[in-house]
Amino acid sequence: MSHSTGRRIVIAIDGPAGAGKSTLARRLAARLGFTYIDSGAMYRAVALWALRRNIDPSDRYRMQQLARAASIRFEPGSSRVWLNGEDVTEAIRDPDVSAAASVAATGAGLRQALVEQQRAMAVSASVVMEGRDIGSVVFPDADVKVFLDAGQEERVRRRVAELGQRQALPPEAEKAVAVQIKERDTRDRTRSEAPLVQAPDAIYVDSSGLSAEQVEESVLRIVRQRLSNGREHS
Questions:
Q1: 39-52 and 108-124 helices, crossing angle to 10°
Q2: Interhelix angle 108-124/60-69, nearest 10 degrees
Q3: Where are the alpha helices (DSSP H) in the chain?
Q4: Domains and CATH numbers, the chain
Q5: pTM score of the predicted model
Q6: Using an 8 Å Cβ cutoff, are 41 and 84 in contact?
Q7: pLDDT in tens, 109-167
């Protein structure tokens, strides 16, 4: 897929926790040769820095300062995440960091600081970005918007499987993850700052019962259709 016009392409993928957004975004970026921006990793990176410095993630002013000072970089062609020159790919997946990031993400100042960084990344490269408010807030003019969803049970199952690859899980893990996802859904949909909503021009994709390959193929079809549909695209 060429973009000889020099115009940068933005693909926005939104949806609730555990719908498979990261997997899809990573695969699409690799397939199209675009840069994958993991918005969640950016919040996690700032949260990790805050925890290391004993800053309360609900302290909105301090979190905004950290976000502005943070140098967050994604390694092209991989899913490595760098914070201030350190590879934090594994560290930001710690459950404590996830919890802190979710609290921090409700702060308007922090969000604004990271949105500015995200928009700057899309100026220099074509990007695939996933999160909760990418098509609605971060890139309202994105070339392609997808809202990826899945049934709650399926999302819990996927998240447990994902965690189980990294560490041995106790038997009650599934129940804990179910509670977490339910709380996360409520917080994401009801927060005043950039809540999780489906943008009016986003295409709804239900990934329940589909493999990662099937989701990728169906979204690639949407991308190709959108980009060849009278856009400055060959």
A1: 130
A2: 20
A3: 21-32, 39-52, 60-69, 95-104, 108-124, 152-166, 173-190, 212-228
A4: 9-34+127-225 (3.40.50.300), 36-125 (3.40.50.300)
A5: 0.79
A6: no
A7: 999 999 999 999 899 889 999 988 899 989 999 999 999 999 888 888 888 887 777 67
